[in-house]
């Protein structure tokens, strides 16, 4: 019997997207960034997630971002976000990812309105027809649709999803999900609950802050899932002043600023995202400089 390939396991970085001064996408820098992340121990990338500002990309840009990542590190390491307002559009993005050589995709529930359970099931059923494994993304804070454990178990039981990026922040759900759907892989979805979800049995991390600090983040993840709590707790305490920004409204700006500080291509965001307020910038800068001084960059 062959072991099932689960490319969403490990540390997959929800990549920030480098932009030129005129706010066009810098694909060369993006390709280099994807390669750098893998060189520093990350298992893959997730382009076109919220951190990648997918909502403000044109269809042409969005497709090329996926193709750029695949060309840089190979399709097996690339799990694009395929969120869209309509199920047909999400399915088309899943098909584009499949045809580009990717082996899994990540999908939010319907997010143009507060969808009911029947709509959520129909949405994931439609995208699953693309024939590529789907990882659900539960982000009830931003989408107003909560993929509670019972609903996730139903989606998994129907064969529509294989894993879930869990961003609710409620770590208690991990244990209920393991009881209801033991074969459904739980992925850490918010950087600032990494240790808690790793201890609870998470199989991967769809991560934000490794964009700036990949090696230290990968070390933290492996220590946590391997049960080396001494190492993990120390690193977690050192990194948490940064990791908690992943759960704030300004997470894209914060992570890009940290990238700038450590010499990575962070830069500006497209509107309507605004630059950090001066006090926010000072807090991110201080926490990043402390991490650098501690040898974590």
UniProtKB/TrEMBL annotation:
<dbReference type="Pfam" id="PF00701">
    <property type="entry name" value="DHDPS"/>
</dbReference>
<keyword id="KW-0456">Lyase</keyword>
<protein>
    <submittedName>
        <fullName>Dihydrodipicolinate synthase</fullName>
    </submittedName>
</protein>
<feature type="active site" description="Proton donor/acceptor">
    <location>
        <position position="137"/>
    </location>
</feature>
<dbReference type="InterPro" id="IPR002220">
    <property type="entry name" value="DapA-like"/>
</dbReference>
<dbReference type="GO" id="GO:0008840">
    <property type="term" value="F:4-hydroxy-tetrahydrodipicolinate synthase activity"/>
</dbReference>
<feature type="active site" description="Schiff-base intermediate with substrate">
    <location>
        <position position="165"/>
    </location>
</feature>
<feature type="binding site">
    <location>
        <position position="206"/>
    </location>
    <ligand>
        <name>pyruvate</name>
    </ligand>
</feature>
<comment type="similarity">
    <text>Belongs to the DapA family.</text>
</comment>
<dbReference type="InterPro" id="IPR013785">
    <property type="entry name" value="Aldolase_TIM"/>
</dbReference>
């Amino acid at each position: 019997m062959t072991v099932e390939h689960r490319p969403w396991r490990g540390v997959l970085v929800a990549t920030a997207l480098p932009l030129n001064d005129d706010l066009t996408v810098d694909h060369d820098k993006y390709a280099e960034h994807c390669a750098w992340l893998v060189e520093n121990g990350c298992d893959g990338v997730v382009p076109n997630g919220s951190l990648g500002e997918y909502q403000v990309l044109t269809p042409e840009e969005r497709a090329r971002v996926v193709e750029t990542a695949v060309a840089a590190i190979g399709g097996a390491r690339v799990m694009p976000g395929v969120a869209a307002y309509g199920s047909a559009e999400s399915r088309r993005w899943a098909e584009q990812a499949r045809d580009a050589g990717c082996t899994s995709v990540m999908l939010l529930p319907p997010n143009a309105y507060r969808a009911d359970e029947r709509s959520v099931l129909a949405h994931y059923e439609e995208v699953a027809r693309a024939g590529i494994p789907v990882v659900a993304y539960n982000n009830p804070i931003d989408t107003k649709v909560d993929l509670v454990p019972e609903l996730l178990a139903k989606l998994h039981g129907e064969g529509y999803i294989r894993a879930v990026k869990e961003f609710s922040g409620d770590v208690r759900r991990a244990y209920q999900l393991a009881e209801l759907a033991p074969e459904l892989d739980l992925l850490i979805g918010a950087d600032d609950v990494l240790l808690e979800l790793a201890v609870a049995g998470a199989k991967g991390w769809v991560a934000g802050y490794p964009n700036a600090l990949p090696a230290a983040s990968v070390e933290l993840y492996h220590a946590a899932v391997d049960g080396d709590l001494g190492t993990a707790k120390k690193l977690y305490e050192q990194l948490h002043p940064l990791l908690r920004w992943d759960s704030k409204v300004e997470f894209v700006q914060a992570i890009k600023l940290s990238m700038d500080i450590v010499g990575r291509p962070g830069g500006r965001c497209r509107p309507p995202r605004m630059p950090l307020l001066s006090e926010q910038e000072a807090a991110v800068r201080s926490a990043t400089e402390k991490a650098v001084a501690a040898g974590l960059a």
